[in-house]
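To the team - S-adenosylmethionine complex, inputs and output below.
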Amino acid sequence: MSKLFIVPTPIGNLEDITLRALKVLSSVDIILAEDTRTSSVLLKKYDIKARLESHHKFNEHKTIGYICERIAGGANIALISDAGTPGISDPGFLLVRKCREEGIEVETLPGPTAFVPALVNSGFPCDRFCFEGFLPIKKGRQTKLKMLAREERTLIFYESPYRLVKTLLQISEFFGADRQVSVSRELTKIHEETRRGSATELAAWYSQNEPKGEIVIVVEGEGKVRDREIEE
Ligand code: SAM
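Output:
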């Protein structure tokens, strides 16, 4: 039976792709990609010649119906994004939900995603965590941060380098100046770096040392702050 495959791709290092992902990408009829030029670099490296079609947040509302029709008609289709796992702060959710509604089988392969290495590398508890993706840029940003200040689980945010200092200052303001934070930058790439410290210390560091590249912010939960205060 034909199906939709959700296939994670590397978040930097092109060697971070599973043998099964390569096998699926080589065997499907169509690969839906966020940016066909970005994905063609990966596909060329592994000599994968499947037909590439564009599927991104600006056209996904319009195309999901037709994609489902083609899978129902016998085509095997894979969805990839520019990096990491589709559906995680990337297009994917709408198509998977539509497939579920239409009774079309979906198979999601395990693989790269940026928040898992950032979380594990932070050294904060990773038995329970809360993935928030990107914070709203303007409306609702402060309300969300105020609400999350009491969250007991470790928190994870995706952030752009242009907003990193602002976000660290806001974490310091709403969560407390000594709330511990871990910033992972350029994971799996040549200039990979993880820096830990209080929100205030890291805001000061990145004000002096302009951050570049892709960033995940991991923040210790409120419960951890209370545990530390009881120990002291
Ligand atoms: N689908 C992706 C995933 O599974 O992680 C996320 C895509 S989202 C559009 C892009 C954001 O993910 C970046 O702005 C950054 O916050 C994070 N990200 C992706 N690659 C990264 C990397 N190599 N190092 C650090 N953060 C990364």
